[in-house]
Specification:
heterodimer, A: mainly beta, 7-stranded mixed β-sheet, 4-stranded antiparallel β-sheet, 11 strands, B: mainly beta, 6-stranded mixed β-sheet
Chain lengths: 118, 110
């Protein structure tokens, strides 16, 4: 069974850093690009970042570019999101998802909640 | 990149059909064959239900269908069932491996 399990969420103060991770199982992780999508409380989905298979190319949404870094470790089947200079508006559930068929997201993990508050 | 525009809510009775629109621009929905839809029940992760505008992944009932005209994509759910009560999000590939989601639509099955 394909499974994605996020971890690392928590409460941090504005300006601090946090790293969330996603452990993948049930598929050939190194063959798939991976993505992070977030959802602020009571709000819609927002695409955050993506990491490709070849050359580990990375891509970011405008709201996080320059502050967040996506990375992967194919030996551990994990993808991570390093978040720096966190803002109150970064408060959200962070989901990781496998990129399927090149341009779609399937499946998704259960998400990890990141709360940025003083 | 601004979020795609979806109606905040739609409703229907069991057995009826509903259509959810998703309006973007000529830079995203209008230019892309890679429009997808996701269903999200409260407290759950999103589930992938439509890709490439109108294709259904394995296991998704044929009651779910997608289409696109110009800058607007649409999701139609026919033969509504109680379990279809959920939030629905459209998503469009933009360019250079970036994506934009719609604001989401709450479907209430009365």
């Amino acid at each position: 069974e394909v499974q994605l399990v996020e971890s690392g969420g928590g409460l941090v103060q504005p300006g601090e850093s946090l790293r969330v991770s996603c452990a993948a199982s049930g598929f050939a992780f190194s063959n798939f690009a991976m993505t992070w999508v977030r959802q602020a409380p009571g709000k819609g989905l927002e695409w955050v970042a993506d990491i490709d298979v070849l050359d580990y190319n990375t891509y970011y949404g405008g709201a996080v570019k320059g502050r967040f870094t996506i990375s992967r470790d194919n030996s551990k089947n994990t993808v991570s999101l390093e978040m720096k200079s966190l803002r109150v508006e970064d408060t959200a559930i962070y989901y990781c998802a496998r990129r399927w068929g090149g341009y779609n997201f399937d499946p998704w993990g259960q998400g990890t909640l990141v709360t940025v508050s003083s | 990149q601004s979020a795609l525009t979806q109606p905040r809510s739609v409703s229907g009775s069991p057995g009826q059909s509903v259509t959810i629109s998703c309006t973007g621009t000529s830079n995203d929905v209008g230019a892309s064959i890679y429009v997808s839809w996701y269903q999200q029940h409260p407290g759950k992760a999103p589930k992938f239900i439509i890709y490439n505008v109108s294709e259904r992944p394995s296991g998704v009932p044929d009651r779910f269908s997608g289409s696109k005209s110009g800058n607007t994509a649409s999701l139609t759910i026919s033969g509504l069932q109680v379990e279809d009560d959920a939030d629905y999000y459209c998503c469009s590939y933009v360019a250079r491996y970036t994506w934009v989601f719609g604001g989401g639509t709450k479907l209430t099955v009365l």
